[in-house]
Amino acid sequence: MVMWKKIRILFVFVLLTFQCVPKPSPSLLGILVLPLITQTSETFTIESTSPTNGATGVALTPTITIVMTQAIEPTSINTNITCSPSCPSLTGGSSNRTITLTPTSALTSGVTYTITLGQNIQSTFGLTLGTNTSFSFTTL
Q1: What is the pLDDT of residue 138?
Q2: What is the pLDDT of residues 106-132, one digit of tens each?
Q3: pLDDT tens digits, 28-78
Q4: Which residues form the SbsA Ig-like domain (predicted)?
Q5: Which of 78, 60, 77 is nearest to 68 (CA)?
């Protein structure tokens, strides 16, 4: 009889121990710091471009860099970037907040090119540009 009492007490102790284990909760560090790594703004816009808007004397084979205020959803840039007047094909892609484009052949000398980012380019946080946004530069 004493043996069963000890087993019951042990069973109750083990059962109560499992109920005292705290439930996992999100880390405060992960909630506060992680979004700051890729989201630097509450809005999704162009932060900077290279060449800068209005630049002149740009090389005929430039590397075009566009830095956004938030990380870019890479699939949203596929059909949402245009160049006028007609540019040679632009190759490249995005990495975090930066879009990098390179013409497949030389641009024409003395021409002002306009790069337009379509309103549907999206950040990884679900925001879109909302309006078409452009910048221009003139080649040598």
Answers
A1: 98
A2: 999 999 999 999 999 999 999 999 999
A3: 555 444 444 445 568 899 999 999 999 999 999 999 999 999 999 999 998
A4: 43-139
A5: 77
What domains are defined for the chain?
Answer: 41-139 (2.60.40.1220)
Q: Which of 107, 71, 105, 76 is nearest to 91 (CA)?
A: 105
Give the position of tokens 């084979």: 61
Contact by Cβ (8 Å): 46, 135: yes
